[in-house]
Structure formats: structure tokens, C-alpha cells
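Session log. Operator J.P. requested a structure for one protein chain; no other inputs attached. Running the standard single-chain path with C-alpha cell output.
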Amino acid sequence: MFRSAIPYARPGQVIGLFGGSFDPPHQGHAHVTLEAMKAFGLDQVWWLVSPGNPLKLKGPAPLAKRLRAAGEVMRHPRVEITDIESQTGTRATADTLAILQRLYPQVRFVWLMGADNLAQFHKWKDWRLIMDSVPVGVVARPGDRISARMSPAARLYGKYRIDGHARHLLGRAHAPAWCFVNVPMVDVSSTEIRTRGGWGDEVLPE
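Structure written below.
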């Protein structure tokens, strides 16, 4: 469940950060979270439910509604649902990471994202600073890697890519470092749910 507080982490832990609008959250998000935790050897994953995506013109549903729904969809003792960006007043990932690294100087963070995010990563504010600050774990649908692998970020940081066989070492690597992992995906998306009018007052299982 969601708790409105900065989460606790012990020194030396590896924390995956999974950011997004979660508008709405669904089982696909939960599935990616658990697969990333297993693949990259993460001690915890924190969902960073954003007040708003700077790359989207239209705002998401109210933050409180998305946090409540996220807490219902993602129930795991090693996953925290947070409103960190709301508390810190940050919107851009690079700014949020900088604050977290100051708050948790002895914790290792890994930024988690989908292959579609990597394909447009070069459009993010200070994206190279993100790559240079923390390892990045990319979760990809099988066969959904071409656009991501051809992206500016993948090309510029190609020599820092960790082979999939060593993916469990990503959290202990020094940035820049990134790794692809292919996982079966749950066939659902937030956009699809909104389009069919399923984002109501009740939390959807899928």
C-alpha cells in the first residue's frame, strides 16, 4: 500500500526506481517490477508516481487517485509506492535522482524503464547526466528491441552495455552502465485502459 513518506533503505542496498505517471497503474507495471527485481538483483523497487510527465501535454488523473490505485495493484513487501517527486518538488528524472543520491549516499540506485523509453531517452532533460549517474535497467518485450538499440542513447553508450548473462551485477556496477533484459509482457497498457474508458473509481485488475 502507499505510504506518504520517504522510504527506508539500508546502506549498501540496491534500489530500483520505476518512475511514471501510472495513469492508471495495472498488472503490466507490477509484472515488469517483479521481473526487473529478479533480473537485476534488486533489494527493493520504489515506484515514483509522478505528479505529471513533462513530455505529455495533457495532465494525468489526480495524484492521490493514482497512488491509491498503485497501492492496490502492486502488493509486495519489497516494493514501495511513493510520491517522492511530489515531496521534493521535482519533475525531471535527473533532478529527482540528484536529490535521492544526496538523501541516500550509501544506497545504490538503478533506474528502470521500458525499451520504448530508451528509444526516446535522448529527449529527456539531462538524459546523459542520468546515464552517468546511475546504472539503467531496460526491460524489453521479446522482439521489441530494434528501435531501442538504434536509439541515440544506445549508440552513444554502447560500450557501457552489460551483457544479459551478467544482468544480476547491474546494481553493483559503476555508472555509466546499462543492460537489456527480455521478459514476457502482460498485454495491457495505461493508454489502452484510458481509451476504452476503464479508468474509473475502481482499480482495474488488468
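Operator note: The domain at 14-195 is CATH 3.40.50.620 (Rossmann fold).
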